[in-house]
Amino acid sequence: MSNVLHEVENFEDYLRIIKDEISIKRPYYRGQEKRVQDGYTLWPSLARYEYLKKKSPTELTQIEKRTLTTFANHVIGHVNHIPPDEWGMLALAQHHGLPTRFMDWTTNPLVALYFATRNTKKDKDGTLMDSAVYVLIQQPDNYSDLKNQQEKSDLEADDEEDTSQTTDGDPYSQYGIDGESEPDSYDDEDESSDSSVKKKSLNYASSFTPFDITANVIYEPPHVSQRIRTQDVVLLACFNPLTPLEEKDYLEIVIKADAHESIRKRLDLYGVFDKQLFPDLDGMAKWLKFHEFECQNGEDE
After folding, report:
1. Is the Cβ–Cβ distance between 30 and 105 less than 8 Å?
2. Helices marked H in 30-142 — which ranges?
3. Which of 34, 47, 217, 258 is least enclosed, having the fewest CB within 10 Å?
4. Contact 273, 291 (CB under 8 A)
5. pLDDT digits (tens), the chain, 301 positions
6. Phi, psi (rounded to 5 degrees) for 262
7. Residue where a domain terminates, one of 161, 184, 206
8. Strand pairing of 141-142 and 217-219?
9. Domain check: are 109 and 192 in the same one?
10. Could you please report the per-residue DSSP string of 174-209?
């Protein structure tokens, strides 16, 4: 079964598909100037380096952690806010071009359409190539939800331990009265049993990093730059970063090459273009370049 949802011939086609044919609760979009079948594989930037595929998972994780540590050591003095954990630090590294296990997606379908049509690629024969917007249908867990579950689990584990020490049927047992031993003289088996819940929770908390996940996770990064905010960026943390997403995990909306020019003009009209999505001098220059040199003097078709 093909995962191609539709072929878009114009801007209105795209809007109709997004409105009427995407029934996913939390859709995430990714625009690409080339389709997967033309060589733009859906995987993180880390997977572009062939030598990494010869590494074991442990070796790969060591390389990722070492690289992130070096990056983090140089962050101070360059940003106003230091990310509080490895998720935030890795997102910052991704934003500045470091290869990571994160993939850029967006919650805004028009932003994805911009990235799919801003530049029209040509094949080796000079023929204009179709592009694509991909819709993630995998529905991965959200980092915030997992973090809240973790914190709740930690609190419940703490409460369980406190309760077990004071409500065992003997109000004097905690003082070692009536032949009961002191708390620190419990045998090894009882100690292991009483603390197992909390130890498991603490181990999970310490390993809740992008490098220890066992399934893909959606992470909404802090707004370390205006670009992240204006592009409605979300990051897909890939637990197996050297393997492409499976076809069953996404839908493909093909954007025909002949429609790119008219779509670019419509996106510009609706404020989804260079200077809005890249609110800096680079974005302004790209927008001005489009209007003065690429847009046929700005005349609409």
Report:
1. yes
2. 57-75, 86-95, 109-117
3. 258
4. no
5. 357 778 999 999 999 999 999 988 889 999 999 999 999 999 999 999 999 999 999 999 999 999 999 999 999 888 888 888 999 999 999 988 999 999 999 999 999 999 999 999 999 999 999 999 999 998 899 998 888 887 777 676 666 666 555 555 554 344 333 444 444 433 444 434 333 333 333 233 445 899 989 999 999 988 777 777 778 899 999 999 999 999 999 999 999 999 999 999 999 999 898 888 887 788 788 888 888 888 764 444 4
6. -70, -35
7. 206
8. parallel
9. no
10. GGT-TTPPPGGG--HHHHHHHHHHHHHHHHHHHT-S
Shared domain check, 96 and 15: yes
Full residue range of the structural domain in which residue 40 is found: 4-140+216-263
Beta-bridge partner residues of 252? 4, 134
**Has residue 108 been placed in a domain?**
yes
Phi/psi of residue 76, each to 5°? -55, 130
Q: Please indicate, yes or no, whether residues 232 and 129 belong to a single structural domain of this protein.
A: yes
Q: Could you say which DSSP state residue 240 is in? A: S
Question: What contacts 157, CB < 8 A, 6 or more positions away?
Answer: 197, 198, 200, 201
Overall number of domains in the chain? 2
- My answer on whether 162 and 47 are in the same domain is no
Residue 65 is assigned to a structural domain of this protein: yes
Do 15 and 95 have their domain in common?
Answer: yes
Residue 292 belongs to a domain:
no
Q: How far is Cα 187 from Cα 194, in angstroms, rounded to an integer?
A: 11
